[in-house]
Write the structure tokens for this entry.
Amino acid sequence: MSADAPNEEVEVEVTAPLEPRGGDVVYRHRWPTRIWHWLNALVIFVLLMSGLMIFNAHPRLYWGEYGANSDYAWLQIGGNRERGYLRVGSVEIPTTGVLGHWIDSDGKLQTRAFPGWATIPGSYDLAGARNWHFLFAWLLVIPGLLFWLWSFLNRHIQQDLAPKREELSPRHIWRDIQNHARLRFPTGPAARNYNILQKAAYLGLLFVLLPLIVLTGLTMSPGMNAAWPWLLDVFGGRQSARSLHFIAAMLILAFIVVHLVMVVLAGPINEIRSMITGHYRLPREKP
Amino acid sequence: MIERITRRRIIASLGAGAGGLLLSGCDRIGRSAAFEAVQSSAQDLTMSMQRLVIDRSALAREYSPSEMSPVFRTNGNTMPRSPAYQAHLASRFTDWRLLVDGLVNRPLALSLDRIRRLPARTQITRHDCVEGWSAIGKWTGVPLRTLLDGARLRPEARYVVFHCADDFRGVPYYESIDLIDAFHPQTILAWGMNDRLLPVGHGAPLRLRVERQLGYKHAKYVMRIEAVESLAGIGRGKGGYWEDAAGYQWYAGI
């Protein structure tokens, strides 16, 4: 890219550069964002589904360093021939047919926590799930670090994702929440920028959930515990790290659900095209 | 294994829905030889990265007595069925001997009494099962290094194999570790647990503790320690019972 030298070229634009309007096509996503997005679309689903299979091996979560069958589990998915349930604290939610009690593809009743359609592999295989999980963990971490680096260097994070001062005012945030609740999305030039709730969601994913899930994953490794014992102190023990890993995974799943709903509401073809080609048609102003 | 993609299969897959397609696809990929090779290189990458960042002598965390699990559950085999083990158990292991052999210059046959009189190490550590649970317990035993030094390991030895008295449907349990873990200060053959003699459910008379790896590496009912150059030819060659039987990773630091 050539740097502009405004002093030498006396090229005054007669007409001021036109601000793009609703209906114009703008370049929105650069190639690293697009590649990372579609890689993650695959990688995160494999990690989620293989993770659910790993959870199935011991469908109980604890706080602290230790935790096994005779210790108090703050979350448990259980089932028997009659019913399935999810227990969180002292609240028990019946999940018969979905969790802890489901019919597999051969028509047989299973009492594992997560059903076969939600797990990789589709039938109980802890060793296989671990192989999938640890292979795809590399595909999350290495491209993720590269994306971080790239987004700082080319100022994508500073320019496009970092909230501006005025966006952080409670009034602005409240107005954005109201706009979202009424499904009133920005149009015209305003649609070129992320709004504050989008920024919060993407920054939360990039700098809170993804680091949290990677570091709590490492905290479950007895080898890494020997190398970096501070991990145990940061997360309050191995079983706490396992609980936080599960919670972070569920929050990432929630992010994906909201993300997909928003794509559908905002115009799926335009949105998906922008993530494939980079080009996005600004929504027209409503009359 | 090459699977022919037929029209009927495609229609059947479509009929199972997109999720089903993804799933059956994953299961099919998961079983292919090429994908196993990819997974196996990811395992190698994980192990080499861990070996890179974990100092050889870095210790697993040791806990205080107040942090111990109130109940330390058992799992796997809890009572070896072989008549030989039953006879040793009945005589409180008085005639039992631990064999240390293979690639050593001075094979050993040590009585339990002799082992208990060797300098012991006591450590309160966390036991992490591959399934996900953890329990903290206190282990007392002889460092494996003491036995390997006593038997004078030969230079070509690369792995230490633990042959056990228990079995799953007639297939004997065994495990193996490399010399980095074998000579680690916390790697002990425990004969005591929680200030008592090691109970049968937890592996009496001797159980391996290899604290920087998952529970299935901590072989119970250790009868014989064999130094070898290669794991091929032992069991089905993958270095342990669970590695052979269900494809668990040989390196279980993660």
Q: What stands out?
A: The mean pLDDT of chain A is 92. Chain A touches chain B through 46 residues (CB under 8 Å). Strands of chain A lie at 25-27, 60-61, 75-79, 84-88, 91-94, 102-103, 109-110, 279-281.
